[in-house]
Amino acid sequence: MSQTGSFWKQFDFILFAAILLLIVFGILMIASTTRGAIDPDLISRVPDQILYAVIGIVMVIALAAVDYRLLGGLHMWLYLLMVGLLVLVRFLGVEGDAGSQRWINLGIRIQPSEIGKIVIIITLGYHLSRNYQKLDSLKGVFMSLVHMGPPTALIFLQPNLGTTIVFLVIWFTLIWAAGLRLRHIGLFLLILLVGAPILWTQMEDYQKSRITTFLFPEAEENSDAVYNIRQARIAIGNGGLFGKGYGNGSQTQLRFLRVRHTDFIFSAIAEEFGLVGGIAVLGVLGLVIMRILQGARMAADPLGSMICYGVAAIIFFQTAVSVGMNLNMLPVTGLTLPFISSGGTSLLSMLAGVGLAESVIIRRRRV
């Protein structure tokens, strides 16, 4: 059989179809939430999302065709590229909301922290696949933290607390998959407990406000953060079981629901398609995660498993946090709903992760 024939035979079309469905639905929701906008940034959201979606789909096919082990062999160069881009953000970054400096302009605006999510899966996965025997010792675990340290610190300083937490989730997922010993977990919980007050002092005021608003909403009754959450919950409640119909959500169309195309897009989905629509979206995202985890179980080597576990962890965590903050069950973090929220670099990073997972699945063990 030809290599091309083997490629398409092993390709996971169910996974690919699921992400296509999510992308198309996301574009439709962005069109609904930005309808009638006069802000040039909002007007450009739909064509930009379509452009990035086309680029991302091509990227999925291209990365699937590349043997992921070749990328593992380039781990050092990929790591240096990631850190280099994050350093550029520090000195040449474009300032965004609340003074955050997360983007660089290379003809188009890119967010290196989003690229870093995928790169760190490859580099940390390669490191752990070569050193998992050393996880018996605390030194082996410590070296994995050293690997994570520079990019995570640079992202925290942007400031970008949400993506910083995503990096920590990636680290914990991969090191757990590699065989983290239970006796080490208590030690790291102690370090986290001691380090939390220090971390708090380094956070920006708006980041602290998001957490205090979540914990003590009555103390921040008139703040913008409380207003956003309240409107999100009203939108979800308005949707009922089957929703008010596409483009007919009052909170969305009358602009009561802010950042409805990014942070609070799940509330817009629930208002227009109801509980049934929201559960359907989560079901498709769950299918994506399950197919990638199946790829991890069938992977030909530890690196392949690490890549799939890392990609699945990002999609699961961002979905849980995005939905949780819309329901006021978690603080607002700004993390996107995978494949659906508006955001070019975020969409590309998710699709790059799917492309890597497809590469692992294509080269899985033959049973």
Task: Summarize this structure as a short list of keywords or feature phrases.
367 residues, mainly alpha, three-stranded antiparallel beta sheet, 16 helices, 3 strands, 72% helix, 2% strand, globular
Largest sheet: 3 strands, antiparallel
The proportion of strand residues reads under 5%
Mean pLDDT: 87
Q: How many beta-strand segments?
A: 3
Poorly predicted residue ranges: none
The total number of structural domains is 1
Q: Please report the number of helical segments.
A: 16
- For the largest sheet, list the strands in their spatial order: 1-2-3
Radius of gyration: 21 Å
Question: What gross morphology would you assign?
Answer: globular
Helix percent band: over 70%
- SS-derived structural category: mainly alpha
- Please provide the ordered H/E string of secondary-structure elements: HHHHHHEEEHHHHHHHHHH
The end-to-end distance, rounded to whole angstroms, is: 18 Å
Q: How would you describe the overall organization of this protein?
A:
This protein has 367 residues and is mainly alpha-helical. It has one domain (3-362). It has 16 helices and three strands. Strands 1-2-3 form a three-stranded antiparallel beta sheet. Strand 2 and strand 3 form a beta hairpin. It starts with a helix and ends in a 5-residue tail after the last helix. The model has no long low-confidence stretch (mean pLDDT 87).
